[in-house]
Amino acid sequence: MPLYFSPIELERFGKELLTKLGFPIRHSEIISKSLVLANLRGVDSHGVVRLSYYSDGVEKGLINPNPNIKIVKENQYFTLIDGDNTLGYVPATLATEKAISKAKEFGIGISGVRNLKHSGMLAKYVMQAVEEKMFALAIANASPNIALPGFKKPVVGTNPLAIGFPVDGSTPIILDMAMSVVARGKLLVASKKGLPIPKGWALNENGEETTDANEAIRGMLLPIGGYKGFGLAIVIDILCGIVLGGGYGLKIQRSWFSQGGFLIFVSKLDMARTYEEYLNDIREYIKEIKSTPVSEGTRVLFPNEIEEELTCKRMKEGVPLDEETFSELVKLAKKYSIKEPKAL
Amino acid sequence: MPLYFSPIELERFGKELLTKLGFPIRHSEIISKSLVLANLRGVDSHGVVRLSYYSDGVEKGLINPNPNIKIVKENQYFTLIDGDNTLGYVPATLATEKAISKAKEFGIGISGVRNLKHSGMLAKYVMQAVEEKMFALAIANASPNIALPGFKKPVVGTNPLAIGFPVDGSTPIILDMAMSVVARGKLLVASKKGLPIPKGWALNENGEETTDANEAIRGMLLPIGGYKGFGLAIVIDILCGIVLGGGYGLKIQRSWFSQGGFLIFVSKLDMARTYEEYLNDIREYIKEIKSTPVSEGTRVLFPNEIEEELTCKRMKEGVPLDEETFSELVKLAKKYSIKEPKAL
């Protein structure tokens, strides 16, 4: 049975912990809020569960808690930021702000961050731009865990992308997806429960498709659509790793907090038509698709609807944490002499 | 048994036919070359087989062969083109040229085309930019044929994207993919052969997964990665259909030559680092991934390698056309009093 926590209490805990780890208060706040936002949206893999990995990274000197974040290059539409090896949340938030302000002035803005660690759930950055009535696309690359059948080693990360469109007065469209068929977490869950996994999720160490969760954990994840998702993961690896210079997957040390680069593209939505025309059409679009005939029990959902529903639910009922995650947080509380998160 | 044709002979045929249909010679040339390029790359669904659909569209007054292509809007980085309801090849080629020239001057260029018909294989436009040592991403939207399980009607097109990176002195990386697990053509092939199709390709008219090719043809295609590919198809529909104003899938008349909009983004590759650094890294990247240990018989291939190999092969041996496609071309030749394509 999970325990439930108010988002504010989890934010308080994260902020205190990160501050003890050496992050400036303002950074601790941004990181902690982002983690809890992920929990609220049901993306628990990117929520407070990461705190113990992050503290581990800081202790080992692999994450810089007190960085000198610098703008390395800048022109009319582009900003390149050096994250000084800190967690990506703060530099990526800054990168997003820069891209938004350039887009406001100029129509579009592009920002990149290199020399950073994990920047968390990409939807967060895209939502930042969507709140300003803009389109955004964000990508990030990670260490390899995807391969195609026959490969004996993973060569590319799950390399997520997030894309967002504002919809006035209604749920914005926010797509946030990794290039693997399923997240690695699903293999871990199946393994714990002693259940097989469906064909098409993963490969074993020999590059053969497997339905054994433990074999899959030692093996690799399969990309969506075979060579298609594989190709998209490669594209993201090249953009973040090579074009920006953040380092590509095979050069990234495997850990729960590693990352190559972060890239965000932001654009105003009035380049071809007025923003009002855009808004009218997108409302009509959603309405039209929502009225598709479906079989009983099927819902027509746009990307972000489930996440918004969960956010409402969890704002009311609290964020559920499983016992394992909670006990990790309790350990951290003891170690850093802060108050453990109090359940509802 | 297929017949083989020299690419030059097919180009000659296409050009003459299109000119007879009323296209200016220069337009006929661009369209015909693009079709044959698709055949050379093995993308036969986008090759000369389309000529009979196009001539049909022109005859019915649905495609304008002699358009007044206009630049509707333009700024430092953006160009919006009105295709005057002609086939998309010429306006999309112009759009790509504009994006390249803006990128040369300014770093990036974005172009959109609306009011157009089919613009063919997207790889073509991306290759245009890659030849100029630039990164490119192109998208287009079409009438619906994708749905998720439980949907009784398709709501979004297979909406392809193509992405390209130059690799000096070697095969460039060109990813060109639709959001369906397989192309509709594969259902037709299975149906002709009386074979079942794998689970995961398509739905029947009731929105249930089917392995019956004929049911699938009357039904819908499944997207890659479930909601992921579905979400990407929606994103492309919104960008081309709503942001550009080309019309979204559900508004597009279903035909073999319909299209909503076309969008291309082109960028120089020296925004963060020098182009030489980019080139060095991407060569190293390809080498490193190519040396992944694989099981016997597995090849590590980057997007575009198979297509380049096929191009070499077909340049030498000719382009194979099945009897049905050839007999369609012969019919067109008779109807428009031009010389039918001569097999090798």
SSE inventory with pairings:
The structure is a homodimer of 344-residue chains.
Chain A: E1 3-5, H1 7-20, H2 25-40, H3 51-59, E2 70-74, E3 78-87, H4 89-106, E4 108-117, H5 123-130, E5 135-140, E6 161-165, E7 173-177, H6 184-193, E8 202-203, E9 209-210, H7 213-218, E10 220-221, H8 227-243, E11 261-267, H9 275-290, H10 305-317, E12 319-321, H11 323-335
Parallel strand pairs in A: 3-4
Antiparallel strand pairs in A: 1-12, 2-3, 4-11, 5-6, 5-11, 6-7, 8-9, 8-10
Short description:
The structure is a homodimer. The first copy, chain A, is an alpha+beta fold and about 350 residues long.
Notes on the protein architecture:
- 2 copies of one chain form a homodimer.
- With 344 residues, the first copy, chain A, is α+β, with helices and mostly antiparallel strands.
- The first copy, chain A, folds into 2 domains: 1-66 and 318-344, Malate/L-lactate/L-sulpholactate dehydrogenase, four-helix barrel (Hypothetical Oxidoreductase Yiak, Chain: A, domain 1); 67-180 and 223-270, Ribosomal Protein S8, Chain: A, domain 1, CATH 3.30.1370.60.
- Helices cover 41% and strands 17% of the residues of chain A.
- Chain A has 11 helices and 12 strands.
- The first copy, chain A, has a 7-stranded mixed sheet with strand order 2-3-4-11-5-6-7, sandwiched between helices.
- The model of chain A has no long low-confidence stretch (mean pLDDT 96).
- Chains A and B meet through strand 4, strand 7, helix 8 and helix 9 of A and strand 4, strand 7, helix 8 and helix 9 of B.
